[in-house]
Amino acid sequence: MRPGLAAKRLVVKVGSAVLAGEGGLDLEAMAEIARQVAALKEEGREVVLVSSGAVAAGMRRLGLEERPKDMPLKQALAALGQPLLMARWQEAFAPFGLPVAQVLLTAEDLSSRGRYLNAKATLRALLDLGALPVINENDTVAFEEIRFGDNDQLSARVAALVEAGLLVLLSDVEALYEEDPKKNPQARAILEVESVEAVLAHAGEGNPLGSGGMRSKLLAARIAGRVGIPTLLLPGKRPGALLQALSGASLGTYFHAKRRYRGEKAWLFGLLRPKGELVLDQGAVRALKERGASLLPAGIREVRGRFSRGEAVRLLSEAGEEVGVGLANYASEEIARIKGRRSAEIEALLGYRYTEEVVHRDHLALKEEA
Prior knowledge:
Layout: E1 9-14, H1 16-19, E2 20-21, E3 24-25, H2 27-42, E4 46-51, H3 54-62, H4 71-93, E5 100-105, H5 107-111, H6 113-128, E6 132-137, H7 151-161, E7 166-171, E8 176-177, E9 189-190, E10 192-193, H8 214-226, E11 231-235, H9 241-246, E12 253-255, H10 263-270, E13 276-280, H11 282-291, E14 300-304, E15 312-317, E16 322-327, H12 332-338, H13 346-350, E17 364-366
Parallel strand pairs: 1-4, 1-7, 4-6, 5-6, 7-11, 10-12, 13-15
Antiparallel strand pairs: 2-3, 8-9, 11-12, 13-14, 15-16, 16-17
Helix pairs in contact: 2-4, 3-4, 7-8
């Protein structure tokens, strides 16, 4: 049973290996994907496309055979290739009368609550206008330490941003396998995955034209699953695979999702790097997990990093387990002074009191293994 197949809103990610062809981009593959997306739009579905391929297009344009490791060179190739990529998508969707809109995002765009909401509003407006947003990471300005990692994980965060009902990863692989099919041609495909954690060991090496690989796709499925969005991994080069799978055909691998977070909590889940960390004692961890309580200063053992009031912080157990992410009601310096103390003592210790909670449960997203 694949409950996400009827989703009204989908995010479809197309990998570099699917788009790369002899001498440049594979125009036939792009035309086939455009045909399927147009058919979904005809059904009344909303589609957001996350497209890799800018660096690969830049490489082909300059006749380079190997993907560079130097970041400035990769950024330069992305700048060369991105206009080519968008021009080809416009050509692919033109026969169907679908206007294409370019949206370039960085990790910082989705880490800032204000910029996140702005991006959300823009994408909502594009969908309302009947346009097809084509999203890529803004490689020309994204540095290694703040990158999403690759477009698999970007697509998962975009799925949370637009509150999609399904994330589809079009790849150069047929599915997730029990073993590497390149080493064992008899390896069996895994059609349904209940727990991503249980299969992370199956991650393999990526195509040389891409930076993802199977592990990246599993991580994307975990990110999406944590906010209640299932993921479907499909063979992107196979004609009709997207439409067939959404009609119920047993293609690819379907990753089930658990809980459903929306709004601010979905944003908290998607943060790459919260501003700091709070280490909690066992009692506080139990209160958060079992009773859905807010975090009080008494349960805090340690403050890590520097952050201001209202910024996101990661909550950890003393054993290093990630408990959740929440918005701090006090700055790091203030929490350092009140940690381990009762809420009734806050005013005496600081000279004022905003709230009795350091993190209120309404602004807290608890982590669950997907």
